[in-house]
Batch of 4 targets.
Target 1
Amino acid sequence: YIDLANEVQMNSWSNSPYYLPRFRKWLENKYGTVSAMNRAIGTNYESFSEVNWPSGWNVEEALVTEYDEYNDWELADYHKFCADIIHEYVPDMPVWTKIMSYTADYGDIHDYSYYNNGTGLDAYADVLNVNGCDAYNYLDWDKGRLVKNQWYDYMVGINYAPVFNGEDHIIKDS
């Protein structure tokens, strides 16, 4: 097995000139026309070149949801690139990425920090042969086993593959 990344996260929303044009192109590929995108997400752009990053992290804002899906795709696409290189030389080598269990956490659902890490498992389903994770179960945490098992079920529900918890914390990091 080859672990492509450890506790991977990505946030392409930045002042970088690299990602914004890619986000716009991703939207164009998804919707085809700007009018189709406007109808779907309730915006009123005249062209994809007018689209900018979301103004904040309100999870009800449709553009935030689009950004989140794009960000997941961007990071999964990079992992696919890495997996393809490995499979060029060792075709049957299983690959995995250790993804932290953010969406299984018990935090506020409106706290966007749980969702904007570029780790949407649906984007990885065609890339990974193993569901790798860092799902914790602190000894002094009443919800630990439930949250960890929910995360495992979530992973297998999206990608029917074995689960490997590469870092099963039983005590909190200091």
Target 2
Amino acid sequence: QGVRAKFYPNPDSPVLDENGKVLDRTMLERTFNYLKKTPLEVKVEKSKAKEKPPLPFNQVELQTYCGNRFGYSLEQTSKAAQDLREIYKAITYNRSSSRYLNEEHYADAPRVVSAVLGITGIELPDLDLGIKSSCFRKVKEPHHAIIPTGTKVDLNKLTEVQRNVYLAICQPEN
């Protein structure tokens, strides 16, 4: 199996012009033929990176995400979120400008997370609910970030737009 690579000659090489282009085609062909025949040693390192989880959505971030990810208009996303809140009681207030949660939400997080995992079928074997996200702090706005309530909802009874909006709220990739 071949590997695509780019050749970057030394910038100080006399075979380059003032724009960094190779002047000597013969030298370039010799280098190419040499590299084709020569086994190259590649070193791959794997490491676990520590990455903070994304903040929960506010209205604008949810609309932007759903527009980019699914091609939904602002109205489609807003209507789906409104239905999820009013009809299904599946999410919290959906017109929030905040991306943070009050401290009391942290105490309720195990219940909500457990319910959401059951509803969505998402498996997170390494989930550690003891780690406190930076999203938990005193919210100064009248409303907090948009999150699932943990209320049981049948995903099969939701429209495709409602289901995608709900799942986006449950597992933000933003």
Target 3
Amino acid sequence: AINNDGNRNLIKQQIDFSNIVKEKNIKPIKRNNLSLYKTLPANISLNTKWENIWITDTATMQQSLTSATCIYISNNVYYFLDDRVSISDIDISRISYIEQQFEAAYQKVHEKCGQESDVDGNGKIIFLFTPIGNNVLGFFYTADKYSDTLTSLSGIHSNEADLMYIESNYLLNS
């Protein structure tokens, strides 16, 4: 979801985690592993706060911590908004549109590819709306499928969750 092929290839190269996985022999998280760092709250409802989320700046590839609040829940997704973005600045109806589009695609993907691994054991995917920048609409970060204890040995942090990062500007009021 990047606006040109040059940026797409650059971002793919910068966030390619597969070489580190091979070099360090890092194994994916087994479902609901008790040894996980797990910053994601065990019980999520509207307005649940999620602290200590690792965010990657797509321009510099540096990671920093932020927090987010659950603003919407659907059958298959928890929707979190980065706390650096004001809820009063977003158009919440855009979440409903995203939900409709995602739910339609989700069933088709399951029919063709099967279920996701559900590393965090909550039965849902997480959409985190956060300022991404660098002409990136959204991305999936492979490192989040691995234990933070192991990935941090390589200087990369994991949120240990089934997580999609989506540019928060998409939700802003017009």
Target 4
Amino acid sequence: AWSVVDVSSSSKLSSVFFTGYGTGWIVGEHGTMLRCVDAGGTWMDMTQGPRRRLISVSFVDEQRGWAVSMEGDILRTSDGGSHWASTDAQGSLAGVWFADTLLGWTWGYDGQLRKSSDGGITWSVQHSTSGCPLLGTCFLGRNRVWICGGGGTMLSSTTGGETWASSTGLSPCC
């Protein structure tokens, strides 16, 4: 059965991620960042940095994580969220995921994928063959990736995003 969890926030919340049984993160509008260490029982406000709409959060362990905003901010932490560094991706982002402490991707509303091989310090654009918004993903390890998006877009890669196979639906990407 589902139950309502009090997180003591009035912000619209966008993404939740748990690193294991106990530690979790929620992000949302106005730069909202909430953290729990008791499996979701108590949430602490950890908001800092740009007050933009955070749309996605991902951690590889309890110390190292990333969050992205719709406005193109990529935030990263290596100390469990006490401090966050920011990089501007210059695009409208929809999600972030890291396979390990070094290898990660962002994707966005501009149809672009970005890849980092240095823990999110620098990012390079990977051409996805789609100009449609990229909205949902499924990663199986470092190489197998599926991404879906606007206009019935479905992309898949077995090369960690170096090359893509695509199928696009009949709808326009607007």
